[in-house]
């Protein structure tokens, strides 16, 4: 159960002794404030020396009447402390005494210590059991069996890994070959065959009329020669007959 703490601090030193607190509790300072009757604008600084009177003073809060009449504090004190005020204004301190178990982080520290003790005991027990097993000879046999099992498992894993790697490499090679074939098929030109056939057809079409023209010209040139030969053919026997008749008349 927490108990209230209150004190008025002025320019004179006001000591706090932990041994005088109830049930050896720790003091928690919650607030520092000035009275409303203080003239507006006056300032006061709450100072404290921790551990001894020879320690350097530390400013915990500075109050200004009419502007900042109170300041919230969150300070735990478990050692000798001297309070004092700089200024002509009195400062009122308020707080409560708290048992050490209720301090933040206290339970966590205890739990961590318990965990360390527990882990230390467990490790000691396991190590002692292992030593006894080794002395009896059982531990050596178990260790040898474990080593054999581990070695066999490593070999199987290594072989399976090698097989898997070889299969993956073969699949990758097949994929690469298929991709190369597809690229070659795509790169090979197919259109030129059709173009060549079309050009040949056009050439044949162009050549045909040239040949027909030449044949027509030859026929035209041979035509009159044939007619002349046909006309000359019947004239030759007539001339021969006339020559024979003339020879007979002369006789």
Automatic annotation (TrEMBL):
Residues 231-251 have a biased composition (Low complexity). Residues 106-118, 154-188 have a biased composition (Acidic residues). Residues 97-251 are annotated as: Disordered. Residues 215-225 have a biased composition (Basic and acidic residues). Residues 23-97 form the Nucleoplasmin-like domain. Gene3D superfamilies: Nucleoplasmin core domain. It comes from the Eukaryota. InterPro entries: NPL (IPR041232). Pfam families: NPL. This is Nucleoplasmin-like domain-containing protein.
């Amino acid at each position: 159960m927490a108990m209230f703490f209150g004190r008025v601090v002025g320019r004179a030193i006001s000591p706090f002794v932990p041994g005088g607190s109830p049930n050896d509790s720790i003091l928690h300072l919650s607030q520092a404030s000035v009275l409303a009757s203080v003239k507006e604008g006056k300032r006061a600084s709450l100072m404290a020396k921790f551990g001894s009177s020879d320690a350097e003073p530390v400013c915990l809060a500075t109050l200004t009447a009419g502007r900042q009449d109170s300041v919230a504090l969150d300070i735990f004190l478990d050692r000798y402390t001297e309070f004092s005020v700089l200024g002509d204004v009195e400062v009122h301190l308020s707080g409560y005494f708290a048992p050490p178990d209720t301090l933040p982080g206290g339970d966590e520290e205890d739990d961590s210590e318990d965990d360390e003790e527990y882990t230390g005991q467990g490790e000691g027990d396991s190590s002692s059991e292992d030593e006894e097993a080794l002395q009896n000879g059982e531990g050596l046999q178990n260790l040898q069996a474990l080593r054999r099992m581990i070695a066999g498992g490593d070999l199987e894993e290594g072989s399976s890994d090698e097989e898997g790697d070889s299969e993956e490499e073969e699949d990758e090679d097949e994929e690469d070959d298929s991709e190369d074939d597809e690229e070659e098929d795509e790169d090979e030109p197919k259109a030129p065959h059709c173009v060549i056939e079309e050009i040949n057809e056009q050439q044949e079409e162009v050549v045909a009329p040239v040949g027909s023209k030449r044949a027509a010209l030859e026929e035209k040139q041979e035509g009159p020669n044939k007619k002349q030969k046909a006309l000359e053919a019947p004239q030759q026997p007539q001339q021969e007959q006339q020559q024979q008749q003339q020879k007979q008349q002369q006789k």
